[in-house]
């Protein structure tokens, strides 16, 4: 037990030795302004005990003076009597921020609150260690901050500068700093413009940053607390209620800037008058400023003045433009560069040369030398006012156009009479037409003047559209230049239609071969041209003739087309041939365009198969399969005969076919074709049923019985009847099956070859081998090499024909065919089986017998000789002889 107490005490001692309580408050002194809120934070660290700590606040007049209790975080009766009322009213309070941190708050600090504030924490530690209190000095100074703005003008003109002056001062008792902020208020939203201080730096609002960087906003610090903000080139977006804010700051230990008091004063509401309200523009002749009209003669000079006034004219950059009848003729841009829209050539060349200059501020002069008739009209001066904001961006504030000044250029007009007659009047189509436009009683045509002519045509109802719509044929100007109309340009280029001037006062229109569309009313307009002061030809007057009607009795062109079947397509893959004969009425030499069209039924969509142009150019229609275009032929077999051939018809080709023929004519060789009439032939039907080929199968064997190790051959042949396809359009899938003699009724597949010629053999237990051989298109051989007894049984073949259908153009699978069965027997040869064993046995027996005989003789000679002693013969000669 003593050991446990000792260990516990030692642990407490170590814990107390390793940690020491630290109470901290902000570094002082703290400078605050009378009447402003004050907050002082206090926190404790490195303590033991409960996580939530208690705090007590005391106040000392000097660092070591007598303590006065202010407030406690846990004891409501802690406050001294001098502070109890302020604590009860909430003027002084303590707010817990965290378990180990509180904040002392004084709602309105007084001068008497200056002193030293002590934060104390009751001990909860096991061992007394560290500091349990901390002090900070609070200095309270009187509120001497004064903000005195100068009221800006309530209304300024757009583009003018606005100066916002604000005086911010305070009595320097302790080291404090000032800042001034300008803001603009629109409705309930206030937006800061610029802040200066407290460190002498400038901070701009987000919307005004670019404008300040480019010099549109300037800060002008003055003396004795006077600060001025200049906003240049005000616009209507700058309107609002402007405010000035002065703030007093203190720089505390640790580098923090603390706002101790601020004051905001309204400067006043500023309205910006748009430039458009004060901008005035007036145009007048220079010779008579009060007049609004001017009459000139050709060759005179035109001078007009444009006067501009505005309240903020010096702040504006002006773009000045003069317009004649709403068309801009000359412009002076903001930088003073003059851009003229008149030139010495083209349409503007008919008018005098224009110039523009500024005579003084707000006055601009337009000059036109050598005016012509074309210079007459209503002249206006257009002013566009710009303001340069943010340094580089131009803002157009207003645009106004002056009153019009009417300028008339009078000239004695030439006078003459026109007569339009038909010198050659067509009676039928394709006859020539010649019209003459004669000019008589010419008066007041100036010296060097010339005549020009223009022709117009209005079609009769039903022959060219609306009879009140006129189409220009062409014109000849004063220099004799031909300007053809768009509709008649090709005919003029080919010479089928001509415009000419046969005499100084006579103009002619000739049509080589008149068409029906040429019937209608013709009008000639003759214009008088004179030379202006620049030497250019200008039109001075123009007269129109009375309309002249050209027409004749017409016979409608008729085209008849008859289609007939030349070759019938009765089965798929056969050839269909169609012939079309064309007859015409009231059409001369004609060319024909042919369209071969078809449809599946009389109510279905019409498809165009092929076309043949009048120039014999053949094209395939959109309904033609690109892979079958070689099977289609369209030819011209006679002057008015055409043939269409479709080879290898398919089921998709069934339907109705006919010819759509259009007759075309030419006025003369080399010209474009002109449509005369068109017609369709009767319809020819292609209708046949799909009749595929018929197949039969047969099997045979060279020999029904073979000996072992011999080769057996069986042949599977097919025959085709009906619509027999081509060799390349036919393929077979062949399978061979085998039923063992003693293996039961089940049939097993031996080998197969698909329609692509790939051979597959089935794994077999027998030592024999099989192959499939294609003998010809319809014959397949099964070869069994090295036959064995296990190969005995019944064989048959199964064939699936595939053919390329002429009716559909796709590969089609026919019904599977199975042949009859052939029997193959592998014989058992007895003699062949025994002859070798017998031969080997006999040879072995004979060999053993001979060996035994030889062995016996050898033994008899060597081992069985008689060794008994015989008496020697007395007769030695006889003994020798016997030996």
TrEMBL record:
GO cellular component annotations of the record: membrane
A Pfam family it matches: V-set
Primary location: membrane
TM helices/strands, residue ranges: 838-864
Record's keyword terms, sorted: Disulfide bond, Immunoglobulin domain, Membrane, Repeat, Signal, Transmembrane, Transmembrane helix
Classification via InterPro entries: Ig-like_dom (IPR007110), Ig-like_dom_sf (IPR036179), Ig-like_fold (IPR013783), Ig_sub (IPR003599), Ig_V-set (IPR013106), IgSF_V-set/TM_domain (IPR051102), Immunoglobulin_dom (IPR013151)
Subcellular localization, as worded in the UniProt entry: Membrane
N-terminal signal peptide: 1-20
SUPFAM superfamilies (UniProt xref): Immunoglobulin
Record domain Ig-like: where: 20-129, 142-244, 285-406, 414-541, 693-818
Entry protein name: Ig-like domain-containing protein
Species this chain originates from: Astatotilapia calliptera
């Amino acid at each position: 037990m003593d050991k446990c107490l000792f260990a516990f005490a030692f642990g407490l001692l170590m814990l107390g030795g390793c940690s020491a309580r630290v109470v901290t408050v902000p570094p002082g002194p703290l400078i605050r302004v009378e009447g402003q809120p004050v907050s002082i934070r206090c926190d404790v660290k490195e303590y033991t005990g409960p996580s939530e700590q208690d705090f007590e606040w005391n106040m000392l007049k000097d660092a070591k003076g007598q303590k006065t209790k202010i407030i406690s975080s846990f004891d409501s009766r802690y406050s001294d009597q001098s502070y109890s009322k302020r604590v009860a009213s909430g003027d002084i309070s303590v707010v817990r921020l965290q378990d180990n941190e509180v904040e002392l708050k004084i709602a309105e600090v007084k001068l008497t609150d200056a002193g030293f504030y002590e934060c104390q924490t009751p001990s909860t530690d096991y061992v007394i260690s560290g500091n349990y209190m901390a002090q900070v000095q609070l200095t309270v100074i009187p509120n001497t901050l004064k903000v005195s703005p100068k009221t800006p003008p309530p209304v300024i003109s757009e583009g003018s500068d606005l100066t916002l002056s604000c005086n911010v001062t305070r009595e320097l008792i302790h080291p404090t700093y000032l800042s001034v902020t300008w803001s603009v208020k629109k409705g309930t939203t206030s937006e800061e413009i610029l802040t200066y201080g407290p460190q002498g730096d400038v901070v701009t609002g987000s919307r005004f940053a670019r404008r300040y960087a480019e010099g549109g906003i300037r800060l002008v610090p003055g003396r004795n607390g006077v600060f001025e903000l200049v906003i240049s080139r005000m616009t209507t977006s700058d309107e609002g209620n402007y405010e000035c804010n002065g703030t007093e700051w203190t720089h505390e230990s640790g580098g923090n800037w603390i706002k101790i008091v601020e004051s905001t004063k309204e400067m006043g509401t500023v309205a910006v008058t748009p430039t458009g309200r004060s901008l005035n523009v007036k145009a007048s002749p220079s010779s008579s400023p009060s007049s609004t009209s001017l009459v000139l003669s050709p060759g005179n000079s035109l001078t007009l003045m444009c006067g501009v006034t505005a309240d903020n004219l010096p702040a504006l950059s002006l773009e000045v433009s003069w317009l004649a009848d709403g068309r801009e003729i000359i412009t002076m841009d903001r930088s003073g560069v003059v851009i003229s829209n008149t030139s010495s050539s083209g349409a503007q060349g008919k008018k005098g040369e224009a110039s523009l200059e500024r005579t003084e501020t707000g006055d601009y002069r337009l000059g036109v030398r050598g005016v012509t008739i074309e210079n007459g009209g209503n002249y206006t001066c257009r002013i566009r006012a710009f303001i340069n904001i943010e340094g580089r961006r131009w803002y157009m504030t207003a645009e106004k156009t002056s009153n019009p000044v009417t300028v008339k250029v009078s000239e004695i007009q030439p006078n003459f009479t026109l007569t339009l007659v038909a010198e050659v009047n067509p009676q039928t189509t394709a006859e020539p037409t010649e019209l003459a436009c004669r000019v008589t009683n010419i008066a007041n045509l100036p010296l060097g003047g010339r005549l020009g002519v223009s022709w117009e045509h209005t079609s009769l109802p039903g022959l060219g559209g609306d009879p009140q719509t006129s189409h220009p044929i062409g014109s000849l100007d004063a220099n004799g230049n031909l300007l053809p109309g768009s509709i008649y340009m090709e005919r003029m280029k080919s010479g089928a239609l001509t415009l000419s001037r046969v005499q100084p006062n006579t103009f002619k229109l000739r049509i080589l071969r008149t068409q029906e569309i040429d019937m209608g009313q013709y009008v000639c307009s003759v214009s008088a041209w004179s030379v202006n002061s620049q030497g250019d030809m200008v039109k001075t007057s123009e007269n129109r003739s009375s309309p002249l009607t050209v027409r004749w009795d017409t016979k409608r062109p008729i085209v008849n087309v008859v289609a007939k079947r030349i070759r019938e397509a009765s089965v798929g893959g056969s050839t269909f041939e169609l012939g079309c004969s064309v007859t015409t009425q009231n059409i001369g030499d004609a060319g024909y365009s042919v369209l071969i069209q078809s449809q599946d039924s009389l109510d279905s969509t019409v498809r165009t198969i092929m076309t043949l142009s009048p120039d014999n150019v053949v094209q395939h229609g959109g309904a033609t399969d690109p892979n079958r275009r070689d099977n289609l032929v369209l030819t011209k077999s006679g002057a008015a005969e055409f043939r269409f051939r479709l080879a290898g018809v398919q089921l998709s080709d069934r339907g109705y076919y006919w010819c759509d023929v259009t007759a075309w004519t030419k006025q003369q060789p080399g010209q474009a074709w002109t449509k005369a009439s068109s017609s369709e032939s009767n319809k020819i039907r292609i209708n046949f049923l799909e009749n595929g080929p018929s197949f039969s199968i047969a099997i045979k064997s060279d020999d029904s019985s073979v000996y072992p190790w011999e080769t057996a051959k069986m042949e599977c042949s097919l025959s085709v009847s009906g619509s027999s396809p081509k060799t390349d359009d036919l393929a077979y899938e062949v399978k061979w099956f085998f039923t063992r003699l003693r293996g039961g009724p089940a049939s097993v597949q031996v080998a197969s070859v698909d329609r692509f010629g790939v051979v597959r053999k089935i794994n077999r237990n027998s030592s024999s081998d099989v192959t499939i051989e294609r003998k010809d298109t319809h014959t397949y051989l099964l070869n069994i090499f090295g036959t064995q007894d296990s190969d005995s049984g019944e064989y048959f073949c199964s064939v699936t024909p595939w053919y390329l259908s002429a009716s559909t153009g796709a590969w089609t699978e026919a019904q599977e065919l199975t042949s009859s069965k052939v029997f193959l027997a592998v014989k058992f040869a007895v003699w062949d089986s025994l002859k070798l064993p017998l031969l080997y046995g006999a040879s072995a027996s004979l060999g053993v017998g001979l060996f035994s005989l030889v062995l016996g003789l050898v033994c008899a000679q060597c081992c069985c000789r008689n060794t008994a002693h015989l008496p020697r013969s007395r007769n030695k000669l006889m003994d020798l002889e016997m030996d």
